[in-house]
Request: fold
Amino acid sequence: MFTRSRRTVAIVSAFAAAALTLSACGSSDDAAVSPVAVESSTSAGASTTTDTAASSAPSSDTAAPSSSGEAASSSAGSSSADPSSAETPGVTFNLEPDQKRITTAEVPEIAAKVPAAIRERGKLIVTGSAGTAPPLSFYATDDQTIIGSEVDIAHLIGNVLGLDVEYQAADWAQNFVRIDSGEVDAFISNVTVTEERKEKYDFATYRQDNLAFEALKGSGLKIEKPADIAGHKIAVGSGTNQEALLVAWDKENQAAGLPAADIQYYQNSTDYYLALSSGRIDLYFGPYPTAEYHAAVTGETEVVGNFSGAGDTLQGLIAVLTLKDNGLVGPISEAINHVIENGTYGEVLARWADTGEAVTKSEINPPGLPKTES
Reply:
């Protein structure tokens, strides 16, 4: 995870480091823009972002994407020096604390199903990891406010349930601890459904789980099957499902007589992007939206392979995680299905250029990433 100070500046530092070491060879990503300068506050600030369910007038069920306050460009154009925005081809991202989020109206019949203790509190407390790169969950230009597609999804759910949303940040492993203790109600931060996790938690799906290998542009690397990772230095997040897949593939490769992969672990996106730019690693294996965003914004890396987050035989799914049998997963899933139907869900994904991972309905506890043999 990022340290609390200078997170966004650290991202830009990684971009700058990449620019110093990469060649200027062209690719099909000619529309990609240059690194974006982002300012940061040096104050520690808070690690909590709270919005009220009625912070702005609900948008209509058929509201156009412009209701979010985002400007969609007709072409990528050149990079912007404005620290409050970033671009990928066809999309301008608002990186300011004031997000002007897409909203929707409360649905009383769904809200009534929320457990009484949460209804009486009037607030849904959500935990997530804010140290990831855009567009999932990250810090705005004030270095305090957590923004991104995952945060927007949390707020849409809160809208339908008639609840304020408090989005808190924690290290990846700590998020599970906070759910276990009852300190928070839901974990919304690119969490994959797995069979092992289903033993302890409930899941309400809202997005496909796709993973990507990212390499320096012009590296010539292509990862199309597990055997292609053999002998490469690869960075991955500890405790993630992509780590589980990578370790399993490496084990299979070694059993088949192929060279072992050198799997390396870093604390946050700044670290592994610096390692990639300096040649200390060959590949980064992480969420597809993050890899696509980084490659488009910097123009210095490219996605060289993508896989389902649940392995070769199953499409992985991202879901809201709650403590098992606490009565919350049902209304959350209904809320997600409502915003899928009224179109605001699609607007949120479009706002962050992640429509390719949209789902047509939310499922409760579907098949997940299979358990690995010990």
Q: What stands out?
A: Residues 224 and 314 are 16 Å apart (CA to CA). DSSP finds eleven helices and 14 strands in the chain. Confidence is low (pLDDT under 50) at residues 1-46, 52-83. The two ends are 28 Å apart (CA to CA).
